[in-house]
Amino acid sequence: MDTKIFYIFLILSVFFLVGIYSCKNVNDKGKVAIAFYNCENLFDTIDNPLKEDDDFTPRGSYHYVTRTYEQKLHNIAIVLQSIPVTQKCPVALCGLCEIENTTVLKDLVNQPELYRQHYQYLMVPGNDLRGINTALLYRSDYFKVIGFDTINIKSKAADTLLKTRNILHVWGVLAGDSVHLFINHWPSRRNDALNRDNYRYTAARTLKLKTDEIRRLNPYIRIIIMGDFNDNPPDSSIALFAAYTNPYITLYKSGAGTEHFGNTWNLFDQILVSPAASASKYRQHYKTAGIYNPAFLKREDGTPRRAFAGTRWQNGFSDHFPVVMFFE
Question: Is the whole-model pTM more than 0.85?
Fold first, then answer.
C-alpha cells in the first residue's frame, strides 16, 4: 500500500473512533429520548412549480403569508422544545413528516426555542404530489450519522413508483451503539376504495424487506421504525412487524390516540424497536414510551389543536399529537 494512502486511512479511522467515543461519553449522562411528530403541512410560502403546493402560498386558498409561516414554525418549535426531558434526557432524535423542504427545516431549527440545542437535519425529496416529505432532526452530540438514503415505494399491481412519501433511512451511532432509523409517512386512507391493492401494506412490505435484509447481516443490530403509518397497531401492515416491540398496541387498546377523525381516535403515529433495541443486556435499550398530549396541544374536547380549521388559520399546532420513546 502506498505510504500516503495508508496514513490518510489511519487518520480517517482515528476520527471515526473519536466520534463514536464522544457519543459514548455523552450517553453516560443519562437517558435518551426519541420522538416523532406529524407537523401538518409545514410548507414555506414559495410556490414550487413541480409540486401541487399552490394552496400554501400567499395567493392560495390558505392565504399562507410570511406571518402565518413564521407563526407555524414558532408553534412547532414550542412543541418540540416542551417534550419532557427529565433526568438529563434530551430529545436526541426526532422524526418529522409533512415537511416541504430543507429551507423549512433550517428555519425550524433556528427558532429561539430550538437553536441552542444545535439540531441538525436530514431530508431527501420524495415523490409526493404535494411535495411533503419525511425528515430527521438530530443532535450530533448524541447521534453520529454514518449514512442515509431513501426508499421508494412501488405499486404491487403496476410495479411503478407511487406518488407518495418515500421512507427516509438513516444509519449511525446513537450514544455509542449502532442503529438504523426508518422515518415513515405511509399513504393516506383517502382513496382506499379506488386502490387495487392496499398501498400502506405495500409500504410496509417494502420496509420489511429492507429491515429483514439488515437483520440477516447482523441479527443484533438495533432498528427503530417511526412514523405516521395511517394504520392502527392491529392493522395488517403493522402486524408484519410483530417481532418488534410496539408499546402503542397497549395504548390503542386503552382507547388512546394521536389523531381524531369523525368520532374516532386513531393511533397512526407509532415508534417500534427491534428485539436488539428492547433487550436490557444491550447498553442502550427501550425503557418506556407514550403520547405527548399536554393541555396546550388540545382543544376543549381533547382533540388536537389544528393549525387550520378548513382553510382558516387557527394559530394551532397539528392534527396529530407527537409520540415519544425513552431509552436508557
Answer: yes
